[in-house]
Amino acid sequence: MEYLPLDSVRLSEDESAVVIIDQTLLPERLEYKILQTAEQIYDAIKRLCVRGAPAIGICAGYAMYVLARQITAGGYEFYSELEKYGEYLCSSRPTAVNLGAAVNKMLCAAKAAANKPKSEIIDILRRTAIKIHEDDIQMCRAISEYGLTLVKDGDGILTHCNAGPLATSRYGTGLGALILGSERGYTFRAYCDETRPLLQGARLTAFELKNAGVDVTLICDNMASLVMKQGLINAVFVGCDRVAANGDTANKIGTSGAAILARHYNIPFYVFCPSSTVDFDCKSGADIPIEYRDPEEIRSMFFAKPQAPEVKCLNPAFDVTDAELITAIVTEKGICCPPYDSSLREVLGK
Q: Do the Cβ atoms of 215 and 157 come closer than 8 Å?
């Protein structure tokens, strides 16, 4: 079937704003949000209106261009203000390395053109932001192609959280092989963890896969063990927000639990990510900062009234999956296998 992609992040026609699909409203409403100020962009990233490491990176690239256009100063003051915008945006989601990488790429482009007229610097920033987006589209296609080599027609795939086109572009990363395969006539059976507490699997992954014509079944997070034991799962596909140099991987809370279950039932566990998500300056998962979010996401979000008494809530947004639990890490440059401290560098050319 022909797949109609979701345009999750783009530049507005007049280039004065970043336009995103507000993912907090899915699947009930497909609504676009226009972001023009630094505060609006920060809030959209912080509140997960735009989420997924690559999508955040694309958003940050366009955001830096949009904000650069608003800076009235020139020369050193222009770069200084742009740098402050970058620091502010990066503070919204510290775990996602793509956010910082995109901001840094935009700042480097501006600094390299420091001797040029301001209008030329703005144009360079525009082209740099567009290239970040175009590179992501190509990256998603390449990851999807590699992912298809790991499974066969009819396989059952367990997913956790969301790593489709809403989180990236075009095909996505963790869902890319499923969507590309469906386009080519494969009949995969997807089982989506709902992914508590923000339900990205239920609201977003199930929505995307249904949109792509994939046979999708939604399950609660605590049902994964049973469907594995019943032989319904042939592989686990997840995305990630950061990969350490040793292969430890940070992804949405609950990912490490799925990896442990997969190891117990001898099911391959695959991580899909762009090469930009691999942070070679981060030695292991112990060095990855974990974001803690509002406790009310557990107690009351999505409910008409609180579903728990007034007690303390621990709400980490991510966990770290140890490298030893990961069968392979799939990037746009190739498939990395253990030991990751060497294969990541070999495949990615680092």
A: no
Residue 8 makes CB contacts below 8 A (sequence gap 6+) with 20, 21, 23, 50, 52, 55, 165, 166, 167, 168, 169
Peptide bond into 316 cis (omega under 30): no
d(C-alpha 76, C-alpha 82), whole Å: 10
Residues spanned by the domain of 73: 9-140
Is beta strand 189-193 parallel, antiparallel or unpaired with respect to 156-159? parallel
CA–chain centroid gap for 289, Å, is 16
DSSP 282: -
Distance of CA 38 to CAs 84, 85, 174, 340, Å?
10, 7, 30, 38
pTM (two decimals): 0.85
Please give the Cα distance from 56 to 340 (Å, whole number): 26
How crowded is the C-beta side of 216, counted as CA atoms within 13 Å? Answer: 24
One-letter amino acid for residue 231 of the chain? G
Residue 154 lies in a domain: yes
Residue finishing a domain among 109, 140, 171: 140
Question: Given this model, what pLDDT does residue 1 score?
Answer: 42
User: Is residue 179 very low, low, confident or very high in pLDDT (cuts 50, 70, 90)?
Assistant: very high
Last residue of a domain, one of 140, 169, 187: 140
CATH value at residue 30: 1.20.120.420
DSSP letters along 48-107, please? TSS-SHHHHHHHHHHHHHHHHHH----HHHHHHHHHHHHHHHHTT-TT-HHHHHHHHHHH
pLDDT surpassing 50 at residue 216:
yes
pLDDT tens string 86-131: 999 999 987 767 899 999 999 999 999 999 999 999 999 999 999 9
Residues 121 and 235 in one domain: no
DSSP calls for 1-33? --------EEE-TTSSSEEEE-GGGTTT---EE
Residue of 136, 155, 193, 241 marked catalytic: 241
Same domain? 202 vs 327: yes
Quick check: is 241 catalytic? yes
